[in-house]
Design a protein that fits this description.
binds D-ribose, 5-stranded parallel sheet, Ribose 5-phosphate Isomerase B, Chain: A, alpha/beta
Length: about 140
């Protein structure tokens, strides 16, 4: 898959770890946001990555800030984006199965690299179940 991976400074270190792991799994990863750990505003990162996800330039987006909260709030302002802040693999599995999330959010100051990499792997390896869950997504829309 092609993954569009963005972060601010708060998510920079974790972003590098997740990028390396996903590339080792065989995914193509394109990175956005803070280039070397310098301060970047997380709404601007979400606003750069999310339209590309909607345009099909990547299969999924992954966005990381310090807590994962700000960047998920910003991403969810963009119509068509279903951004899920996940802190464990159960959340990652079921936000794909039930919410058809197209963006995964994590917190670089909250979630350690080992857990974050497994969350990303789980998110990418689960699919949407449709059915009653599609009706609920339609209700959100
Ligand atoms: C930046 O210091 C921090 O506010 C940001 O990364 C994020 O945690 C916001 O929700």
């Amino acid at each position: 898959m092609k993954i569009l991976l963005g972060s601010d400074h708060g998510g920079y270190d974790l972003r590098l770890e997740v990028a390396k792991y996903l590339e080792e799994l065989g995914h193509e990863v394109v990175q956005y946001g803070s280039k070397g750990g310098e301060s970047v505003d997380y709404p601007l990162v979400a606003q750069e990555v999310c339209p590309k996800v909607l345009a099909g330039e990547g299969d999924f987006g992954i966005l990381i800030c310090g807590t994962g909260i700000g960047i998920s709030i910003a991403a969810n302002k963009i119509h068509g984006i279903r951004a899920a802040l996940c802190t464990d693999c159960y959340m990652a599995e079921f936000t794909r199965k039930h919410n058809n999330a197209n963006v995964l959010c994590m917190g670089g100051r909250v979630t350690g690299p080992g857990t974050a990499c497994k969350i990303a792997e789980t998110f990418l390896s689960n699919g949407f179940e449709g059915g009653r869950h599609q009706r609920r997504i339609d209700e959100i829309e």
